[in-house]
Amino acid sequence: MRENMDIRNSAKKAGVFLWEVAEAYGINDSNFSRKLRKDMPPEDKERILSIIDRLAQEKQEAV
Q: Where are the domains of the chain?
């Protein structure tokens, strides 16, 4: 099983691209992809999942 599937699945379900998450997280999308290759500390996961939630909500409000 791939690492950080919870982040990947959450972004997919929310309709948020990983490059959008990377941008909001403040890093280059290729660096973010590399970061997803290994399991992250819980505090990083929480921050990323909250970014996904915020981006999804912003997309919903734009509709």
A: 5-62
